[in-house]
Amino acid sequence: MSQAIAQAAAVAARLAATAGNTCEEQVRIPDCLMNAFYGRGSNDTISHIQSDSGCKVQMGQSEGDRVITLRGSRESVTKGREVMQQLANRNGGGNVEVVLTINMPPPGPTGYPPYQEIMIPGTKVGLVIGKGGDTIKQLQENRS
C-alpha cells in the first residue's frame, strides 16, 4: 500500500470517528510563530488557542514542520485560525496559510458519511492521482 493510500485511509478513519459537522484544516504558520509553538511556553500557546476557539490543535510531525492541524466544528476551526493570525500579527507579522481543508458531512443511513470533501493543493494533486492513476484507482477500489 502506498504512502498516499495509507495517509488517506488514516484521515478517513479519524474523520469517521467524529462524523457530523467536523472540519480539519492544516495551516502553515509564519516563521514568527515557530518559537510560540516549538519553544518554551508552547503548551500555553496550544492551550490558549484550544480554549479560545474550541478546536483541537495538533502539532506537525517534526520540530521544523510549520504545519499545524486544527480539528473541530467549522466555526471552532475558523476561530482557531483567527487566534493564530492574531498571535502572528502581534509577533512580527506573516500570514497563517491554509494548506488543506477537509469537511466531513453528517452521517448517512449506514452511520458513515456518504462522501468526504477533501481540498487538495494543486501541487499535491499528482500524489493523489499517482503514476498512471494507480493511487486514485486503489482508493476507489478500497472504498467499501
Automatic annotation (TrEMBL):
<dbReference type="GO" id="GO:0003723">
    <property type="term" value="F:RNA binding"/>
</dbReference>
<dbReference type="InterPro" id="IPR015946">
    <property type="entry name" value="KH_dom-like_a/b"/>
</dbReference>
<dbReference type="InterPro" id="IPR004087">
    <property type="entry name" value="KH_dom"/>
</dbReference>
<keyword id="KW-0677">Repeat</keyword>
<dbReference type="InterPro" id="IPR036612">
    <property type="entry name" value="KH_dom_type_1_sf"/>
</dbReference>
<dbReference type="InterPro" id="IPR004088">
    <property type="entry name" value="KH_dom_type_1"/>
</dbReference>
<dbReference type="Pfam" id="PF00013">
    <property type="entry name" value="KH_1"/>
</dbReference>
<dbReference type="GO" id="GO:0010468">
    <property type="term" value="P:regulation of gene expression"/>
</dbReference>
<dbReference type="InterPro" id="IPR009019">
    <property type="entry name" value="KH_sf_prok-type"/>
</dbReference>
<feature type="domain" description="K Homology">
    <location>
        <begin position="21"/>
        <end position="89"/>
    </location>
</feature>
<keyword id="KW-0694">RNA-binding</keyword>
<protein>
    <submittedName>
        <fullName>Far upstream element-binding protein 2</fullName>
    </submittedName>
</protein>
